Amino acid sequence: MFKGTYRYRLDAKGRLPVPAPFRRRLAEAGAHGVVMTVLDECLAVYPPTEWEKLAAQLVALPAFSKPTKGLARLLASRAVDCELDRQGRILVPSTQRAAAGLGGEATVIGVVNRFEVWAPERWASFLRDSERLLDDAGLGLDWAPAAGLRPQGKPRS
Fold first, then answer.
1. Which of 22, 70, 93, 155 is most buried, taking the most CB atoms under 10 A from its CB?
2. How many structural domains compose the chain?
3. Is 74 helix (H, G, I), strand (E, B) or coil?
Protein backbone atom coordinates (compact mmCIF):
# COMPACT_ATOMS: atom_id res chain seq x y z
CA MET A 1 0.00 0.00 0.00
CA PHE A 2 1.23 3.48 -0.83
CA LYS A 3 0.69 6.00 1.96
CA GLY A 4 2.21 9.17 3.34
CA THR A 5 3.27 12.55 2.01
CA TYR A 6 6.77 13.50 0.88
CA ARG A 7 8.34 16.63 -0.58
CA TYR A 8 11.19 16.46 -3.10
CA ARG A 9 13.11 18.59 -5.54
CA LEU A 10 13.26 17.61 -9.18
CA ASP A 11 16.74 17.92 -10.62
CA ALA A 12 17.55 19.90 -13.78
CA LYS A 13 16.76 16.87 -15.96
CA GLY A 14 13.34 16.37 -14.35
CA ARG A 15 14.28 13.34 -12.25
CA LEU A 16 12.21 12.81 -9.13
CA PRO A 17 13.20 10.63 -6.17
CA VAL A 18 10.64 7.93 -5.35
CA PRO A 19 10.12 7.68 -1.56
CA ALA A 20 11.97 4.72 -0.03
CA PRO A 21 8.76 3.03 1.26
CA PHE A 22 7.31 3.26 -2.26
CA ARG A 23 10.48 1.78 -3.77
CA ARG A 24 10.23 -1.12 -1.31
CA ARG A 25 6.62 -1.74 -2.32
CA LEU A 26 7.57 -1.68 -6.00
CA ALA A 27 10.46 -4.09 -5.35
CA GLU A 28 8.16 -6.45 -3.43
CA ALA A 29 5.87 -6.46 -6.48
CA GLY A 30 8.84 -7.20 -8.74
CA ALA A 31 8.45 -3.86 -10.54
CA HIS A 32 11.49 -2.02 -11.89
CA GLY A 33 9.40 0.78 -13.30
CA VAL A 34 6.03 2.46 -13.20
CA VAL A 35 3.33 3.79 -15.50
CA MET A 36 2.68 7.51 -15.13
CA THR A 37 -0.35 9.36 -16.49
CA VAL A 38 -1.98 12.74 -16.04
CA LEU A 39 -4.99 12.59 -13.71
CA ASP A 40 -6.92 15.66 -12.63
CA GLU A 41 -4.23 18.21 -11.73
CA CYS A 42 -1.48 15.76 -10.87
CA LEU A 43 0.44 12.75 -12.12
CA ALA A 44 -0.86 9.32 -11.13
CA VAL A 45 1.92 6.74 -10.90
CA TYR A 46 0.99 3.06 -10.99
CA PRO A 47 2.98 -0.13 -10.53
CA PRO A 48 2.60 -2.11 -13.78
CA THR A 49 0.28 -4.66 -12.12
CA GLU A 50 -2.08 -1.91 -10.93
CA TRP A 51 -2.01 -0.26 -14.37
CA GLU A 52 -3.01 -3.61 -15.89
CA LYS A 53 -5.94 -3.86 -13.44
CA LEU A 54 -7.05 -0.36 -14.43
CA ALA A 55 -6.77 -1.26 -18.12
CA ALA A 56 -8.85 -4.40 -17.52
CA GLN A 57 -11.54 -2.33 -15.81
CA LEU A 58 -11.60 0.06 -18.78
CA VAL A 59 -11.88 -2.81 -21.25
CA ALA A 60 -14.80 -4.24 -19.24
CA LEU A 61 -16.80 -1.02 -19.68
CA PRO A 62 -19.13 -0.54 -22.67
CA ALA A 63 -16.69 -0.09 -25.57
CA PHE A 64 -18.84 2.30 -27.60
CA SER A 65 -19.85 4.55 -24.73
CA LYS A 66 -18.58 8.12 -25.20
CA PRO A 67 -17.55 8.48 -21.54
CA THR A 68 -15.68 5.15 -21.64
CA LYS A 69 -13.86 6.06 -24.84
CA GLY A 70 -13.02 9.48 -23.44
CA LEU A 71 -11.64 8.10 -20.19
CA ALA A 72 -9.59 5.43 -21.95
CA ARG A 73 -8.18 7.99 -24.38
CA LEU A 74 -7.31 10.47 -21.64
CA LEU A 75 -5.56 7.94 -19.44
CA ALA A 76 -3.76 5.90 -22.10
CA SER A 77 -2.71 8.71 -24.44
CA ARG A 78 -0.99 10.58 -21.62
CA ALA A 79 0.62 7.51 -20.05
CA VAL A 80 4.34 6.84 -20.17
CA ASP A 81 6.50 4.01 -18.86
CA CYS A 82 9.17 5.17 -16.42
CA GLU A 83 12.09 3.10 -15.18
CA LEU A 84 13.63 3.64 -11.76
CA ASP A 85 17.31 4.49 -11.99
CA ARG A 86 19.97 3.22 -9.55
CA GLN A 87 19.30 6.15 -7.22
CA GLY A 88 15.58 5.33 -7.05
CA ARG A 89 14.47 8.22 -9.26
CA ILE A 90 12.07 8.41 -12.18
CA LEU A 91 12.44 10.79 -15.10
CA VAL A 92 9.30 12.90 -15.38
CA PRO A 93 8.95 13.91 -19.05
CA SER A 94 8.54 17.62 -19.76
CA THR A 95 4.99 17.09 -21.07
CA GLN A 96 3.99 15.47 -17.77
CA ARG A 97 5.75 18.17 -15.74
CA ALA A 98 3.88 20.87 -17.67
CA ALA A 99 0.51 19.12 -17.33
CA ALA A 100 0.96 18.81 -13.55
CA GLY A 101 2.35 22.33 -13.13
CA LEU A 102 5.60 20.98 -11.68
CA GLY A 103 8.51 23.32 -11.24
CA GLY A 104 11.49 22.60 -9.03
CA GLU A 105 9.57 20.90 -6.23
CA ALA A 106 6.97 18.17 -5.99
CA THR A 107 4.73 16.71 -3.32
CA VAL A 108 4.48 12.92 -3.59
CA ILE A 109 1.52 11.30 -1.86
CA GLY A 110 0.49 7.69 -1.39
CA VAL A 111 -3.02 6.80 -2.55
CA VAL A 112 -3.36 3.11 -1.60
CA ASN A 113 -2.73 1.37 -4.97
CA ARG A 114 -0.80 4.21 -6.63
CA PHE A 115 1.07 7.34 -5.76
CA GLU A 116 0.56 10.85 -7.06
CA VAL A 117 2.93 13.68 -7.86
CA TRP A 118 1.58 17.17 -7.25
CA ALA A 119 2.86 20.70 -7.59
CA PRO A 120 3.04 21.79 -3.92
CA GLU A 121 0.69 24.75 -4.39
CA ARG A 122 -1.89 22.59 -6.21
CA TRP A 123 -1.71 20.00 -3.43
CA ALA A 124 -2.21 22.66 -0.74
CA SER A 125 -5.20 24.04 -2.66
CA PHE A 126 -6.66 20.55 -3.09
CA LEU A 127 -6.36 19.90 0.66
CA ARG A 128 -8.10 23.17 1.54
CA ASP A 129 -10.91 22.52 -0.94
CA SER A 130 -11.35 18.90 0.18
CA GLU A 131 -11.47 19.76 3.87
CA ARG A 132 -14.03 22.49 3.17
CA LEU A 133 -16.14 20.10 1.07
CA LEU A 134 -16.05 17.41 3.77
CA ASP A 135 -16.93 19.89 6.49
CA ASP A 136 -19.83 21.29 4.42
CA ALA A 137 -21.13 17.74 3.95
CA GLY A 138 -20.79 17.00 7.67
CA LEU A 139 -18.02 14.50 7.01
CA GLY A 140 -15.20 15.96 9.07
CA LEU A 141 -12.07 13.96 9.72
CA ASP A 142 -13.56 12.60 12.95
CA TRP A 143 -16.10 10.57 10.95
CA ALA A 144 -15.31 6.86 10.86
CA PRO A 145 -16.60 5.31 7.64
CA ALA A 146 -14.41 2.26 8.19
CA ALA A 147 -16.41 1.55 11.34
CA GLY A 148 -19.67 1.68 9.37
CA LEU A 149 -20.76 4.93 11.01
CA ARG A 150 -22.64 7.78 9.43
CA PRO A 151 -21.51 11.37 10.07
CA GLN A 152 -23.96 11.67 12.99
CA GLY A 153 -22.42 8.59 14.58
CA LYS A 154 -25.39 6.35 13.76
CA PRO A 155 -24.76 2.88 12.37
CA ARG A 156 -25.93 2.12 8.85
CA SER A 157 -29.35 0.53 8.66
1. 22
2. 1
3. helix
CB 13 within 8 A of CB 37: no
Q: Residue 153: its pLDDT value, please?
A: 39
Provide the pairing of β-strand 33-39 with 42-46.
Answer: antiparallel
Query: Is position 156 within any domain?
Result: no
Residue 113 inside a domain? The answer is yes
User: Which domain does 29 fall in, by range?
Assistant: 5-140
Contact 109, 115 (CB under 8 A): yes
Element (H, E) at 53: helix 48-60
Contact 39, 21 (CB under 8 A): no
pLDDT tens readout for residues 90-110: 999 999 999 999 999 999 999
Give dist(CA 157, CA 151) in Å, integer: 13
Is the distance from CB of 37 to CB of 107 less than 8 angstroms?
no
Which H or E run includes 21?
helix 20-28
Q: State the pTM of this model.
A: 0.83
